[in-house]
Specification:
The chain is an alpha/beta fold. The chain contains 6 helices and 7 strands. It has a 7-stranded mixed beta sheet with strand order 3-2-1-4-5-7-6. Strand 2, helix 4 and strand 3 form a beta-alpha-beta unit. The longest helix has 18 residues. The N and C termini lie far apart (34 Å).
Length: 207
């Protein structure tokens, strides 16, 4: 696990140089308004998993108390630089989604955008998000998922032959399947578009 962790960390350190340019392009052509859709629904004490270079920071409401964790030191450094002018009170730190260093029920909202696709064990990460979320709190997720079109799913499967070994990035994961029908959460809003490639979800942790 430690060797894999170090390899992914080095990979994302390298990606940090061009990450914003790449993601800004995807935001325009694929993800659309998903960052604002997700972040505008965050309230209170918020934890963002894989905060990266801080691309979500512009989209949070005022008075949001944000804590963000990130695996890559180079990504985190860029995120902290952005936070200085956009959200100076944000607390951004190194962290691993597989083992969050926060007590149970610490946050009113947990956010994760376009990152569960690359977290090695998404079930473990989701369990940790659930643990630190307060009863009645909101879980907000967005990611690229398997397309609703068979031919596109076939292409995604081909891409994974390279993307998984190189960067651990999956294109056929769908995190919402772990939440729909789970007694722990009530799914309040879910949208899928372009053509079924992007999914965003709001769920509330039951009391």
């Amino acid at each position: 696990m430690n060797r894999r962790h170090d390899r992914w960390q080095r990979y994302w350190d390298k990606q940090s140089v061009h990450y914003d340019k790449h993601m800004n392009f995807l935001d325009r052509v694929l993800f659309r308004d998903t960052r604002s859709w997700i972040c505008s629904r965050a309230t209170g004490e918020v934890l963002e998993i894989a905060v990266g270079t801080g691309l979500n920071l512009d989209h949070y409401p005022e008075r949001t108390a944000l804590t963000g964790i990130e695996l890559s030191p180079d990504m985190l450094a860029r995120g902290r630089t952005r936070a200085e002018s956009v959200m100076p009170d944000a607390n951004l730190m190194l962290g691993n989604a597989h083992g969050l260093e926060f007590p149970d029920a610490s946050f009113e909202t947990v956010v994760c955008t376009f990152s569960l696709c690359a977290i090695p064990s998404p079930d473990v990460a989701l369990a940790e998000m659930t643990r630190v979320l307060r009863p009645g709190g909101t879980l907000l997720l967005a990611d690229h998922v398997p397309s609703s079109l068979r031919v596109v799913r076939w292409l995604q499967r081909l891409v994974e032959l390279v993307s998984i070994p190189v960067g651990g990035e999956h294109f056929l994961r769908r995190p919402s399947l772990a939440l729909v029908g789970d007694d722990t959460f009530a799914v309040e809003d879910i949208e899928r578009f372009n053509p079924g490639l992007v999914e965003r979800l709001q769920a509330r942790k039951r009391l």
